[in-house]
Amino acid sequence: xxxxxxxxxxxxxxxxxxxxxxxxxxxxxxxxxxxxxxxxxxxxxxxxxxxxxxxxxxxxxxxxxxxxxxxxxxxxxxxxxxxxxxxxxxxxxxxxxxxxxxxxxxxxxxxxxxxxxxxxxxxxxxxxxxxxxxxxxxxxxxxxxxxxxxxxxxxxxxxxxxxxxxxxxxxxxxxxxxxxxxxxxxxxxxxxxxxxxxxxxxxxxxxxxxxxxxxxxxxxxxxxxxxxxxxxxxxxxxxxxxxxxxxxxxxxxxxxxxxxxxxxxxxxxxxxxxxxxxxxxxxxxxxxxxxxxxxxxxxxxxxxxxxxxxxxxxxxxxxxxxxxxxxxxxxxxxxxxxxxxxxxxxxxxxxxxxxxxxxxxxxxxxxxxxxxxxxxxxxxxxxxxxxxxxxxxxxxxxxxxxxxxxxxxxxxxxxxxxxxxxxxxxxxxxxxxxxxxxxxxxxxxxxxxxxxxxxxxxxxxxxxxxxxxxxxxxxxxxxxxxxxxxxxxxxxxxxxxxxxxxxxxxxxxxxxxxxxxxxxxxxxxxxxxxxxxxxxxxxxxxxxxxxxxxxxxxxxxxxxxxxxxxxxxxxxxxxxxxxxxxxxxxxxxxxxxxxxxxxxxxxxxxxxxxxxxxxxxxxxxxxxxxxxxxxxxxxxxxxxxxxxxxxxxxxxxxxxxxxxxxxxxxxxxxxxxxxxxxxxxxxxxxxxxxxxxxxxxxxxxxxxxxxxxxxxxxxxxxxxxxxxxxxxxxxxxxxxxxxxxxxxxxxxxxxxxxxxxxxxxxxxxxxxxxxxxxxxxxxxxxxxxxxxxxxxxxxxxxxxxxxxxxxxxxxxxxxxxxxxxxxxxxxxxxxxxxxxxxxxxxxxxxxxxxxxxxxxxxxxxxxxxxxxxxxxxxxxxxxxxxxxxxxxxxxxxxxxxxxxxxxxxxxxxxxxxxxxxxxxxxxxxxxxxxxxxxxxxxxxxxxxxx
Length: 946
Hints:
The relative contact order is 0.07. By secondary structure, the chain is α/β, with parallel strands linked by helices. Strand 7, helix 12 (294-301) and strand 8 (307-310) form a beta-alpha-beta unit. The strands form 8 sheets. An 8-stranded mixed beta sheet has the order 9-18-17-16-14-10-11-24, sandwiched between helices. The protein has 38 helices and 28 strands. 44% of the residues lie in helices and 14% in strands.
């Protein structure tokens, strides 16, 4: 993990070695001889320390330029400025701007004592510092033009009358291009000059080149610098980095860089690096610049590289770089909607509000236009022509937008949904399931799934997640539980009835499955099983190389590639021999199948994978903007028509165009800046967790739950409590090997020691007093989530509020009566155990041993007059104690988190009633606090039974 350099007002996070007075001779001998040098190594996450270092340098040079009394303090500030510059030296190789040239200029200013010049230089970079902050990465141009010295070259942000680019060109979106080749500094400057010469005022974007010499340096740049949008490879690059890399970064690289690279021919190294770039940042364009025999390479490398060029093709390369970014920048539907809104039109159709018609001239509702603006009203229309499109039958701009989203999220097909993932889930289930089909599902999935099963008429086989009784919420469903249920159906001769499995990834509380392994082992038992992964809270994961591997679409593509490997088929054949009787080919005992890491038959297994994502929850989209991602090898043959009908069933004929446009924009952001935003999102959560753990007062009342609290040791091969806190390598290791991991951007705060229940803490202490919004609580926890819109200021405010609350608790402490060793009373006792799914009543099951039930029959049974009644919890307890079977007539769903405690047809148990009594959630759908629980009346039970 990064350690810290403390400067006035900030702490720079760095990888620091031992402080030593021994230094390597340098051109900057004046500085190096006077001060001991710290060996600062390149960290694995640099956005925060880099931004802080540049900000501090602005402060330091300004103060040093002022001069004044205090020689000792002045010397200390100079030392700190040098330390910040050396920190940046460990990172700026991997940025084009400000880059190493800007550092050289500033170090010269320190050596000469010309702090006015240094301060002026940094002021010239002020716009760059703002855009390069961790909340917005959009680098401008800093550093000398080829052939100019740093002292002579005006820096970006200072209008140069002789500049070859007009001011408006400087305000165009900027990005950086990674150039990988081992060339001299002079060759590098010449290359940059040649590419700079290709610029034209009409270019939509502008870019800068970063030149790195090696395979490893290229990977480091991609990990650190989110501004990179394209990579250019040339034959001369070396393998290892000569940079002093931090221990965590080195460990992470060692997992990526094969020891076989040294003996590989250039072509092999090209392909290997291109594959690694695709794994780390699949959205980037990769180009190959070849010296000889490029024609022979072109046919075989087109899948790896966007284009192949000769060294002299600088103009075509330049245009390709711009074209590649423009392709990701393109938003077909958003652009069409903008263009439509700018055209004059007369509306003789629906929507009086269209073009502001019913609002603009009204003296009573004009404030609507004042608040929302006229653009919203101009874009509000029922039209599907004029460049617009129909969501129900897309052939134009909506279809193009959905195709671009499929590329961005790695799916075969993507469909936009404008009324949330609740509807997306219903669409998928209805397209796959028919009455009588068995669906395996996590009982704790969102309520939309349960209602979908009612609509589809499926036989529901509920799976229990492991409980976290101490914190009053569930984890996820262990793979062993899933395999055991499938094997039970096989043993009962009903495996053919099982159609699909539905799981939530990640869960509301941040538990993430090993998606690839779950699908792989399930397909070994049932090769045609359909998977629906509810990724409502996990859409952001596509943008990060570690998180991505646990998404449904990435796992499906990985398995598809594995199934094509002849070695995989050989592994299956070898395992199949041990899992079947040699004489009869009958499967071995279930126990052996449960203990074995199963390998499916690639000749039989079919990848039929669906993911539903609430884009609006974790990415940029208006509320209810969602997507369905499809990776189904049998979609055209088995599901295309039924999917279309299901989509028609649940999709409005009047979809909200603003939501559709926001989905298009959100996809653009994912492809152009998703990596940097998600990296920041996770790091900010880690900052909060560390603050709680380190602050003496915060840790007295609060504790952030870790993997060790949320995941049992049997599900974790690695031992890190908070992998990201321990570094990128530890994070990658856990996400590669553990059955379950925790999304690092989720922070479950244990508030037991405050003596306040979660619901009260959420509303009274956070929302009402301090304006902090959170989504979910349990009896003794509050869930905080960072997202791509979270700022450092928001994180600082949260920490500040928690400290204020802890101080108030401390002041109240003498007056608080506690029953347990000084802990606040009320939350020190044991939380009632979480109820597992009991069972369906026998009348809704195929047989008394069947785990699945006909939830649809139970649901509609309650429609009959006199079939249901209400009883209080006490009345139910008495009946259950007498041995009576009491059956729920409806859903009972605390919200959040939104999964049902009871479903229609479920037998109510005393455990369920105890848990309901302990709930502190204000909103419980399906429960009437005045009348009690809705259950089936006795006479109805008797009629059905007889």
